[in-house]
Write a structure and sequence with these properties.
By secondary structure, the protein is an all-alpha fold. The protein is built from five helices and no strands.
Length: 93
């Protein structure tokens, strides 16, 4: 299974501290469905939206790695338990 890039995740966490980014990111994440994150194009689309929202460029290799990692997680953003797990991971808990 792919691993997340620690530099990219650190940048993501720092940008999430900005309340404007936080609310936009929450909206992007809540809009996803389980099926979206099980397919490559759905994962890449979400990564691109997050990248644009936060103003963080993501290289094609980083995008590929993040998409593979997301597909391997099997996360359902509509499931409250999974959402809690996602936020714990985002905040490094």
């Amino acid at each position: 299974m792919a691993q997340l890039d620690p530099r990219l995740m650190g940048t993501f966490r720092r940008r999430m501290m900005d309340p404007r980014c936080f609310h936009k990111v929450c909206g992007i994440l809540r809009a996803q469905k389980y099926e979206d994150l099980r397919c490559y194009h759905g994962c890449c689309g979400m990564i691109d939206r997050l990248s644009d929202c936060m103003g963080v460029p993501v290289s094609p290799a980083e995008r590929e790695n993040a998409a593979q990692w997301l597909m391997g997680c099997g996360v359902d953003p509509q499931n409250p338990h999974h959402r809690r797990q996602m936020w714990n991971m985002v905040w490094g808990r």
